[in-house]
Design brief:
The chain is an alpha/beta fold and 404 residues long. It has two domains: 2-218, Rossmann fold (3-Layer(aba) Sandwich); 227-403, Vaccinia Virus protein VP39 (Rossmann fold). It is 33% helix and 30% strand. The protein has helices at 2-13, 17-27, 31-37, 42-53, 72-79, 92-100, 143-149, 167-182, 227-238, 257-264, 277-285, 328-334, 352-367; strands spanning 62-66, 84-89, 104-109, 124-129, 150-161, 186-199, 208-218, 247-251, 269-274, 289-294, 309-314, 335-346, 371-384, 393-403. Helix 4 (42-53) runs parallel beside helix 5 (72-79) and helix 9 runs parallel beside helix 10. The longest helix is centred in the middle third of the chain and has 16 residues, at 167-182.
Length: 404
């Protein structure tokens, strides 16, 4: 036991984040065994807390396990019926141990706090971080990234140990959680304290230390995301054909938000394309699509017959790290002559170069006689910002072109 306690104490005292990851690499093979020896309860409690509040289809739910380590949380959540996991950790050796358990559909290496969380915004039903919200590990500001990765209506579960060396960190964590709640980003579902969180690893603490589990639900309208509404409205205001007969190609359709909006304007025939199988499954449940296709846009050709759609729309995915600008030539190709292509693009400090390249390509295609610009407008309150560097709302643009 003294050896195990020394390992935990050494982990906390290691200076830099890179040094900590080297330490975790060396610890990976024995980590599960050592965690059990100190009666570490965080993973069990996190899984139980999520399970007791999650009311959706657990078999279809996609869980982002942040700082996943060897996969202890996924093992526990598997017992409650969850089965689709994506893991992120800063230790390569920990990820190798997690891979051996066969629970994860994807595992990604990332130094949390130094690198942006490699997770698409609004794409996970549950986001969990267990054991790493602590001094010298993951900074408090990362919880904004966890919130960003969570779907509207989804859950974010966090754990944090107590202990004498942790009071300031925990206070900052809870202050940030409360501020985000006041901003309408999420609502608190449950917070509880477990007195026997784990046996203490510090000589200054005898017996057990306590710890907290926090569960928050992301507000379904938490970011006031306007893109899908504005795209549908823009198409509707210019489309003069038979909407009931029109066939709409919804590219990067996600869960079907654009189709829901366009349905309100009389459109009824939709084909959806997206790179996420789970997103397509959610779209399927809405019963709006005649066909749904899986495609990694930019890496695979758009699975759409040339000149076959009255309207082609792409909303929310023409952005840095998602769909490359060159894909708009494929959107144009899929559109019928005389049909419309509607695109949206957010603004924001990290997006200026991408937006400039997008608009340059649109203009070039217009000069080549491929399409004509029907409408471009800017909405200043596109959505609430999800970045610490941007306060309040960010702007966004809607572009509507008619194929010649």
């Amino acid at each position: 036991m003294n050896t195990v306690k020394a390992m935990f104490a050494s982990c906390r005292s290691t200076a830099t984040l890179e040094e900590k990851m080297i330490f975790y690499d060396s610890w990976a093979e024995k980590y599960d065994q050592d965690s059990a020896s100190v009666n570490y309860q965080a993973t069990t409690l996190a899984a139980k807390t999520v399970s007791s509040h999650y009311t959706g289809d657990r078999g279809a739910a996609v869980v982002l396990d942040v700082a996943c380590g060897t996969g202890l949380v996924a093992e526990q959540m598997k017992e409650y019926g969850f089965g689709n996991f994506v893991g992120i950790d800063g230790s390569k050796a920990m990820l190798e141990q997690a891979q051996k358990k066969g629970l994860y559909q994807d595992l990604k290496l990332c130094l949390l706090g130094e690198q942006r969380l490699p997770a698409e915004k609004g794409s996970f039903d549950v986001v969990v971080i267990c054991g790493s919200l602590s001094v010298g590990h993951v900074p408090v500001r990362v919880i904004k990234e966890l919130w960003s990765a969570c779907k509207p209506g989804g859950y974010v579960c966090m754990t944090c140990r107590h202990g004498g060396d942790h009071q300031e960190y925990r206070a900052a964590l809870e202050d940030t959680q409360k501020q985000m709640e006041e901003e309408g980003l999420w609502s608190c579902v449950n917070v509880f304290v477990e007195e026997k969180w784990s046996k203490s690893a510090l000589d200054s603490e005898e017996g057990f230390i306590a710890g907290s589990v926090y569960l928050y639900k992301k507000d379904s309208a938490s970011v006031n995301y306007q893109a899908t509404t504005l795209a549908a409205k823009t198409v509707s205001s210019h489309y003069t054909g038979d909407r009931g007969a029109a066939v709409v190609l919804d590219v990067a359709c996600g869960t079907g938000l654009v189709a829901e909006q366009m349905k309100e304007y009389g459109f009824g025939n939709f084909v959806g394309i997206d790179g996420s199988k789970a997103m397509l499954e959610q779209a399927q449940k809405k019963g709006l699509y005649q066909d749904l296709k899986l495609c990694l846009l930019g890496e695979q050709r758009l699975p759409a017959e040339k000149g076959s759609f009255d309207v082609v729309v792409i909303c929310g995915s023409l952005s840095v790290g998602h769909v490359p600008v060159r894909v708009i030539k494929e959107l144009w190709s899929a559109c019928k002559p005389g049909g419309y292509v509607c695109m949206t693009c957010r603004h924001g400090g990290d997006h200026q170069e991408y937006r400039a390249a997008l608009e340059d390509t649109q203009k070039q295609m217009e000069e080549e006689g491929l399409w004509s610009c029907v409408n471009v407008f800017v909405e200043e309150k596109w959505s609430k910002s999800a970045l610490d560097s941007e306060e309040g709302f960010i702007a966004g643009s809607v572009y509507l072109y008619k194929k010649v």
